[in-house]
């Protein structure tokens, strides 16, 4: 199974480690290589890349949208999200998927399955690329409410405008989200705020959060973001960012191979590696 990752930059990516674990689980031979492509060479390099005949590859920043014109087919969810992080290559045909948001919901479901019963309300902080996939997957998971709060309010308006399900969804400012915070069972932080080296930064205050609510931060460096520390103090349940990374890889690998792999069993080793 010949796999890889394209992006810029890709050095230091944790994906090779994860995919090698999955290959080992299935006793499959193969490799997962990093392909760094400079933005001004994307068009020419992607044709060379096609000749490598990989079985599949992941796509990271800044190419999750730019890869789309090169695909032969696109899953419905990747089309709705407007971004691709996984490409399966079969007989020279490329099919695009997006496993980022579904990775998060799969990880949440494994840890906090009570969140997926009826009458649950979610809030997403941020309205960028990561938020988009997460929004789509929470709508699909059947949450009653999925609100979006963003520094630039217009972007939250734009994203909530894409909803065509029965889920209630409203855009809001960070101030409004703080006021309403005890309404939510799940809060997903999707901005880069709090990431190393700005570890003291926190996007909103959780003072009024409901006890037992789940706070998920997609930032995984540091392991304990300021937001998660406050959530823990307030007796909310915390969900660290590396789990989304691991589970999006699990779903990608399952698209590549058509076989199931176990992410839970390698979570402990993965955690040690990123800490
Ligand atoms: P990604 O693909 O990682 O989501 P992105 O598309 O650039 O990256 O989106 C970044 C998100 O982080 C946006 O929601 C952005 O808010 P704006 O839409 O207002 O720009 C948010 N963000 C980045 N830096 C921020 C900061 N210092 N305070 C609040 N929000 C911030």
Automatic annotation (TrEMBL):
Listed GO CC annotations: cytosol
Query: Which InterPro entries does the record associate with it?
Result: Aminoacid_DH-like_N_sf, NAD(P)-bd_dom_sf, SDH_C, Shikimate_DH, Shikimate_DH-bd_N, Shikimate_DH_fam, Shikm_DH/Glu-tRNA_Rdtase
What this protein catalyses is: shikimate + NADP(+) = 3-dehydroshikimate + NADPH + H(+)
Pathway(s) of this molecule: Metabolic intermediate biosynthesis; chorismate biosynthesis; chorismate from D-erythrose 4-phosphate and phosphoenolpyruvate: step 4/7
Task: Read off the Pfam families from this record.
Answer: SDH_C, Shikimate_DH, Shikimate_dh_N
Which residues are involved in binding shikimate?
A: 13-15, 60, 85, 100, 220, 248
Catalytic site residues? 64
> Which UniProt keywords are listed?
Amino-acid biosynthesis, Aromatic amino acid biosynthesis, NADP, Oxidoreductase
Binding sites annotated in the UniProt record for NADP(+): 76, 126-130, 150-155, 218, 241
- Catalytic activity, EC: 1.1.1.25
Q: Name one GO molecular function term.
A: NADP binding
Q: Where is the Shikimate dehydrogenase substrate binding N-terminal domain?
A: 5-87
Instruction: Report the SUPFAM superfamilies cross-referenced here.
Output: Aminoacid dehydrogenase-like, N-terminal domain, NAD(P)-binding Rossmann-fold domains
GO terms under biological process = amino acid biosynthetic process; aromatic amino acid family biosynthetic process; chorismate biosynthetic process; shikimate metabolic process
List each coiled-coil range.
Answer: none
Q: How does it assemble?
A: Homodimer.
The cross-references to PANTHER family, in alphabetical order and at most eight, read: BIFUNCTIONAL 3-DEHYDROQUINATE DEHYDRATASE_SHIKIMATE DEHYDROGENASE, CHLOROPLASTIC, SHIKIMATE DEHYDROGENASE
Q: Which family does it belong to?
A: Belongs to the shikimate dehydrogenase family.
Protein name as catalogued: Shikimate dehydrogenase (NADP(+))
Organism, as annotated: Pelagirhabdus alkalitolerans
Q: What is the lineage of its organism?
A: Bacteria, Bacillati, Bacillota, Bacilli, Bacillales
- Gene name linked to the record: aroE
């Amino acid at each position: 199974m010949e796999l890889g990752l394209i992006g810029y930059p890709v050095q230091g990516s944790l994906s090779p480690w994860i995919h090698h674990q999955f290959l080992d689980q299935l006793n499959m031979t193969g490799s997962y290589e990093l392909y760094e492509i400079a933005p001004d060479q994307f068009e020419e390099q992607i044709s060379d890349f096609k000749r490598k005949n990989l079985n599949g590859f992941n796509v990271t920043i800044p190419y999750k949208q730019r890869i789309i014109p090169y695909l032969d087919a696109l899953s419905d969810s990747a089309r709705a999200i407007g971004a691709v992080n996984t490409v399966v290559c079969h007989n020279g045909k490329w099919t695009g998927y997006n496993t980022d948001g579904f990775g998060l919901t799969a990880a949440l479901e494994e840890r906090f399955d009570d969140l997926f019963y009826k009458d649950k309300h979610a809030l997403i902080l941020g309205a960028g690329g990561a938020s988009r996939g997460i929004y789509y997957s929470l709508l699909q998971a059947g949450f009653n409410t999925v609100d979006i709060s963003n520094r630039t309010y217009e972007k939250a308006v734009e994203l909530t405008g894409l909803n065509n399900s029965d889920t209630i969804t409203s855009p809001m400012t960070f101030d409004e989200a703080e006021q309403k915070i005890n309404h939510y069972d799940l809060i997903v932080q999707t901005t880069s705020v709090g990431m190393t080296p700005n570890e003291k930064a926190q996007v909103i205050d959780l003072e009024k959060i409901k006890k037992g609510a789940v706070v998920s931060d997609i930032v995984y460096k540091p392991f304990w973001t300021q937001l998660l520390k406050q959530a823990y103090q307030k007796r909310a349940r915390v969900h660290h960012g590396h789990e989304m990374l691991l589970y999006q890889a699990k779903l990608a690998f399952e698209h590549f191979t058509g076989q199931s792999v176990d992410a839970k069993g390698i979570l402990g080793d993965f955690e040690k590696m990123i800490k």
